[in-house]
Write a structure and sequence with these properties.
This protein is mainly α. It contains seven helices and no strands. The longest helix is centred in the middle third of the chain and has 27 residues. About 30% of the residues are buried.
């Protein structure tokens, strides 16, 4: 059972990094399968769901790397709107990851540290995409290590 949970956690965080809206699916499965942390997973789903329209706006504004990948010409708006979209999205994403961190707190030191590293990574996204990915992958590996250690 723990192996299945580890795969779902991996998928959820991986999708949060690369195909953000799809992360809802493994998070909903985690909420169904992992009773001990059902509320945390559900709250993470809630905040991701609330942020999806802003994710679309980020693509339209060229804030997301998907705009370049999809060849979308960014919509030009005032800097105030650009920052409002970015900051609102980041706040909701941070809240979603906060509940992943809360699960990690219940799993011991490695998972707690991993959750904290992922939480710290979210607002650093605009400053350095490379740092964001390094911290998120590091946090995910620590979280999974903590899950494995807790299993023993």
């Amino acid at each position: 059972m723990r192996r299945k949970l580890a795969v779902l956690v991996f998928l959820a965080v991986f999708l949060m990094m690369y195909l953000y809206p799809l992360s809802i699916v493994p998070l909903l499965l985690l909420a169904r399968e992992w009773e001990e942390f059902r509320e945390e997973w559900r709250k993470s789903v809630l905040f991701i769901g609330l942020s999806i329209p802003l994710y679309g706006a980020k693509i339209a504004l060229g804030i997301s790397g998907w705009a370049k990948t999809l060849g979308i010409t960014p919509v030009h708006v005032s800097p105030a709107i650009w920052w409002a979209v970015y900051l609102a999205f980041t706040a909701l994403q941070t809240l979603a990851v906060y509940y992943v961190y809360r699960v990690g707190k219940g799993l011991g030191d490695y998972a707690r540290t991993g959750g904290l590293v992922m939480l710290i990574a979210v607002p650093l996204h605009l400053l350095s995409l490379k740092l964001y990915f390094i911290l998120t992958w590091t946090g995910l590996l620590l979280f999974l290590l903590g899950l494995e250690k807790e299993r023993r």
